[in-house]
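Re: folding output
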Amino acid sequence: MAIAIRLTRAQLDQMIAHALEDAPIEACGLIAARNGVVTEIRRARNAENSPYRFSIDPLETRRHEEAIDAAGAELAGFYHSHTGSPPIPSPTDIRMMGPFFGPPFVHFVIGVADRANPEVRAWYIQDGQPIEQEFEILPG
């Protein structure tokens, strides 16, 4: 399996920290990258304010996309947390965000049911099915 995206441990830790801080509400955000390497993790507000689903207000998404463009990067994907279930896209995730989970967008799901041992997995959604992707943690 090819590597879908590369990021630093600090960037991965940013997503995990956000997930832990927002629990029991699902955390969510956007991922900026250049040439398949993450340049920035951008926290968003979960408009659903729910432990079972998330959404990002379209106007907030637009502001993030404009900042990503201004920085010379591109929107590479999204992340969200699961506070009580494994880090696998749920049927609700697939239904609500399906078009935005698939290639070229990578979607990280951070499982924080075991707060001491968060689990992070990356996905594409193709034809309504989750397909796990590899990611590489870079030095630095």
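--- second protein (sequence, then structure) ---
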Amino acid sequence: MDLTLPPTVTDRAFARLSEIGAGAQGKALRVAVEGGGCSGFQYDISLDDPAEGDLVLEGAGERVVVDEVSLPFLTNATIDFSEELIGARFIVDNPNASASCGCGTSFSM
């Protein structure tokens, strides 16, 4: 994996964080990778307080944070927000994933 390219966050994701008032509450969108899920790894996406050692991505007065352990799994990934008829959610487009499940929250490398 090329560790020189951090993940990026779309304007749409930052706009959604602004709509829900994450920054006004002092929160950031945390994107983490954990073991588990049907493909081996899964994304854990939540509103959280930034912690020491986190990579902080900022835009439109909002923040997205990635911890040091998850960062290698998210190199060159794009964090976006999707709103469809079946629901709305933050999504990760991860070029490092060799396979992913149908729900999009689990992947393998």
